[in-house]
TrEMBL record:
Region ranges (Disordered): 243-264
Protein name: Gamma-glutamyl-hercynylcysteine sulfoxide hydrolase
HAMAP family membership: EgtC
Record-linked CDD domains: YafJ
Annotated organism of origin: Streptomyces qaidamensis
Catalytic activity: gamma-L-glutamyl-hercynylcysteine S-oxide + H2O = S-(hercyn-2-yl)-L-cysteine S-oxide + L-glutamate
Residue span(s) of domain Glutamine amidotransferase type-2: 2-264
């Protein structure tokens, strides 16, 4: 389990979104308000962001709790970016992969996080994992469910699928193989945000000064936060958010590209 957040918009210091808000991700590491599974996110954290003129994001990840990192708040105070993805982790199962198991995972211009858990891991995804190229399996960054879910999304992206299609298809595939899984996925390429609400909370905010935030839970009490319904695919730019219903695997269809709710 974890909490995560993504942002695209005008350049802001990382700390403006992660540390300064009264209920920001920093505080959510020990006092989340909407977390339904687990209470403390102390098993690692990470943030990825984009520097001007460089499409490949930088990452800062650690294995321990964010509040124990004496450098993070100072780094977040001065580093500015037009896009970020960050997460604090409550491990589903203990493991030895240290910061490699902490989101965000990355490839090329993409940053990815998984909030939730795959039920019956690892056995439940044994068959699904065989659809991946052997090289992808052998190069998994960590031995946890999130890393494999990311590999499934990434394989679809590399095959040419659009981000929303890759995320939706992966959620339906994993949910079919492991019913009862919680699959809130979060992806950014530095310009857009794609997310799924599947088994846990997801919210978004279009900021008055410009920019869009997508998060597990609101970082303040701004009344403009909107909750995303469960079983929903979200696609966001700096100005717009589109919501599309996701059907259960038994419904045997992938969501249509038409939006459920446009917001500006």
């Amino acid at each position: 389990m974890c909490r995560h957040v993504a942002y695209v918009g005008p350049a802001v210091p990382l700390g403006r979104l992660l540390v300064e808000p009264p209920h920001g991700l920093y505080r959510q590491s020990w006092a989340p308000r909407h977390q339904q599974y687990g209470t403390v996110n102390a098993d690692g954290f990470g943030v990825g962001w984009y520097a001007e003129g460089d499409p490949v994001p930088a990452r800062y990840r650690r294995a321990g709790p964010v509040w124990a990192d004496l450098s993070f708040a100072d780094l977040a105070r001065v580093v500015k970016s037009t896009a970020l993805l960050a997460a604090v982790r409550d491990a589903t199962l203990s493991g030895a992969d240290a910061e490699a198991a902490a989101a965000p995972f990355a490839a090329g211009a993409w940053l990815f996080s998984h909030n939730g858990a795959v039920r019956g891991w690892p056995g439940s995804l044994a068959t699904v994992s065989r659809t991946l190229p052997h090289e992808d399996l052998l190069s998994l960054e960590a031995r946890n469910d999130s890393a494999l879910v990311w590999a499934l999304v990434l394989a679809r992206l590399r095959s040419g699928d659009e981000e929303g299609q890759a995320m939706a298809d992966t959620v339906l595939e994993v949910a079919a193989a492991a019913p009862g899984s919680r699959l809130n996925l979060l992806l950014t390429n530095g310009d857009t945000i794609t997310a799924t609400a599947w088994g846990d909370t997801l919210w978004y905010l279009t900021r008055p000064g410009g920019g869009t935030v997508v998060a597990s839970e609101p970082y303040d009490d701004d009344p403009h936060w909107r909750e995303v319904p469960d079983r929903t695919l979200l696609a966001a730019s700096r100005t717009d958010v589109l919501l599309t219903p996701l059907k259960e695997p038994s419904d045997a269809s992938v969501p249509s590209p038409s939006p459920k709710e446009p917001r500006t």
